[in-house]
Amino acid sequence: MEFASRSRVPLFVLGLVLAAGFLYGLAGTIGSGNVGVRTTLGVISADPVSPGIYLKWPFISSVAEFSSKEVAIDLKDLTPKAKDNLSLRDVDVSVYYKVADSHIPALQTKYSGQSARDEHTGIWMPAEGVVQRVVRNAVYEEVARVDSLIMHTKREEMAAAIRRNVQAELERNDPRVFTVTRVVIRSVVTDPSIEESIRAAVANQKKLEAMTIQTEIAKREAEIRVTEAEGIAKANRIIADSLTREYLQHEANQALLKFAEKGNTNTVVVPANMATSPLISIPAGK
User: Which whole number is the average pLDDT over 1-8?
Assistant: First the structure.
């Protein structure tokens, strides 16, 4: 009896393990922020599997977990041509997008083979191939609108234009399915000869700015001198207008009067055009 009771315990534990394994094989889980896409006998269900526990049907159906959160796509080593027909050596772009979870099964049906599976998490990125192709085309089109010499100064404007173009193209093909949240141009590497041209252009721009400042200073100084000269000329005109013949004669008479008041002088000053004879004071002793 004791041997029989001991043998039942391992059998019971074994039964629990087998039952747990059986149940585990019949159930799975979908993480928060993701949805499941069920395929039954090769047919994709139109209804997504909600986050949580779901039932499996071995040999009949399978469920793949897809992300409905923001997904990042990194495009590296792109070599588009700029507006001046010069090819860039390396352009790296990251695009972030989301897919409405209710449309993920339909996308999987429409774009078979275009989703990508993350190697670390095993979660699928919906229609990543489609978005990547649209982004690549948008990058090449936008780069073709900008000269290579100024492209390094237009990264934010280019990123915004790429996002708008990608969103419009995805919306045109699949309305209310994709949302492009942002685009980041991580790197723009031009040809070495272009880099030298950029440096030369920057140096020339700085030189031009310095010359412009110097020209402006010279212009302001000239304006100041003109203003000063105009002020002096105006003052002279005012003085000249006030010097009448009578006023000048009066001033001359005052000067002669002061000169004559000095009794120890023998100098006689005869003003020009004087109408009267000079008055000479002779001392009485002589």
Answer: 46
Last residue of a domain, one of 149, 170, 196: 196
User: Mind listing the pLDDT tens digit for each residue in 109-162?
Assistant: 999 899 999 989 999 999 999 999 999 999 999 999 998 888 888 999 999 999
- Phi, psi for 180 (deg, rounded to 5): -85, 110
Kindly list the distances between the CA atom of residue 4 and the CA atoms of 1, 8, 10, in Å, as whole numbers in the listed order. 5, 6, 11
216-251 b/e with 16+ CB inside 10 Å = b?
A: eeeeeeeeeeeeeeeeeeeeeeeeeeeeeeeeeeee
Regarding beta strands 178-189 and 124-125, do their DSSP bridges make them parallel or antiparallel, or are they unpaired? unpaired
For tokens 């990042």, the residue is 72
Contact between residue 192 and residue 168 where contact means Cβ atoms under 8 Å apart: no
- How far apart CA 138 and CA 164 sit, in angstroms, is 9
Q: Residue 20 is encoded by which pair of tokens?
A: 């747990």
What SS3 state is found at 262? coil
- Domain housing 225: 205-261
Tell me the residue type at 67. S
Please tell me the pTM assigned to this model: 0.60
Contact 38, 108 (CB under 8 A): no
Domain count along the chain: 3
Tell me the sheet residues that pair with 178.
Answer: 99
Residues 191 and 75 occupy one common structural domain: yes
DSSP per position, 40-85: ETTEE-SSPBPSEEEE-BTTTEEEEEEE-S-EEEEEEEE--B-TTS
Q: Tally Cβ neighbours within 10 Å of residue 140.
A: 14
N residues, the chain? 286
